[in-house]
Amino acid sequence: MTRQKDSDDRVVRAAEHMLADEGYVGVLDLFLAMHWLEQAHIQRWQRQQVPDLEGLMLSKRPKRLQALEVFEAWAQERDLPQVWAAFYPKSRWQDKELQVTVDGDEDLERRFRQVFLPEDADARSRKKVQAKVQEKPELVAYMVRRETECGWCGTELPKRSLILLEKEAAICLECAELDHLTFLGRGDATLTRRARSNSSLNVVIVEWARRRKRYERQGVLLEPWALEKAEQECCEDQDQRRIQREKAAQRRAKDDRTYCDQVFQRLTDMFPNGDSDYLRNIAEHTTLRGSGRAGRSAAAKQLDDDMLRLAVIAGIRHDMTNYDELLMLGWDRAEARREVNERVNEILAAWENKE
Ligand SMILES: [Zn+2]
């Protein structure tokens, strides 16, 4: 009796652990944690090299069923939210789920697919876990490093051909009914993501990297129309971005135009006797986007009279006096300003019509 209780406690402890660590716990996870099952078993089962998973489990059936009951009772007592797992083969043909139990007992098959989440799991994490535990294994094509032949049709396959692993055999794309797919090399993440989500068939291509001693992704095989559609979508996006950029530039130009007109208007008010072309010039000059001139500053944007006046003074100084010449002759800037000040004030006064 105590031994039974110990064993039950072990189940609950393992389940609590998995729930806290992973954010969910399923029956197979639990059995893995209890060492009744190994990843290698699951791989063989997913490759369909065995008819069911239960035959590989390292525990007696009554013990497993007892553990399953304890697991269910624990979840029920804690009122844990539940989702259902789905077990698909690592195969080109994935429409049928794998069998867990030796006898294919329907009730047991269902119970083996129970997955529990923490009691505070919200709808979003529930959906996420649900998607994860129902995911089909990714289809993988291996780029062969030496000549080989298809394990089904015997066709000779040259170096760098693609093969799929089906049960114990390495088969060609034609036998795998994938020879209609088109290749997209790695590199463009956006295009790849889009094309993959469009395509109902996705085969990741990997090649053994000898130096790094691991398989590396080389690209993906997709339905041709899915790739085409993704390419189109990416183009449209680029167009869309270009159009938006152009519109923004136009809007800015228009803003600048209005702003320039306003500045010119204000200048004409301030200097009723001023040369209208020249004032227009100053208005354009000072409102030039990004020029960093006096007229562009935040104060001038609010048509600050003092700022505009300074802009006009600067213009007059440069264009209607010998200020620049003096600077070139090596005059000190302040001295040069003092020198031309009188001339500048004369012109200002005349423009302001203050006689
Ligand atoms: Zn073949």
The secondary structure category is alpha+beta
**Amount of beta strand:** 5-15%
Largest sheet: 6 strands, mixed
Number of domains: 3
Number of strands: 11
Mean pLDDT: 89
Distance between the termini: 117 Å
- Spans of 5+ residues with little confidence (pLDDT < 50)? 290-297
Q: Give me the Rg, rounded.
A: 39 Å
- In the sheet with the most strands, the strands line up as 8-7-4-10-11-9
> Ligands bound here?
zinc ion
Give the overall shape, derived from the CA principal axes: elongated
- State the order of secondary-structure elements, H for helix, E for strand: HEHHHEHEHEEEEEEHEEHHHHHH
Tally of helical segments: 13
Helical content (DSSP H or I, runs of 4+):
40-55%
Walk me through the topology:
Elements: H1 2-22, E1 25-26, H2 27-33, H3 39-46, H4 61-78, E2 82-84, H5 106-111, E3 114-116, H6 123-133, E4 139-143, E5 148-149, E6 156-157, E7 162-166, E8 169-172, E9 182-185, H7 189-198, E10 202-209, E11 214-222, H8 224-270, H9 276-287, H10 298-301, H11 305-320, H12 323-328, H13 333-352
Parallel strand pairs: 4-10
Antiparallel strand pairs: 1-3, 2-3, 4-7, 5-6, 7-8, 9-11, 10-11
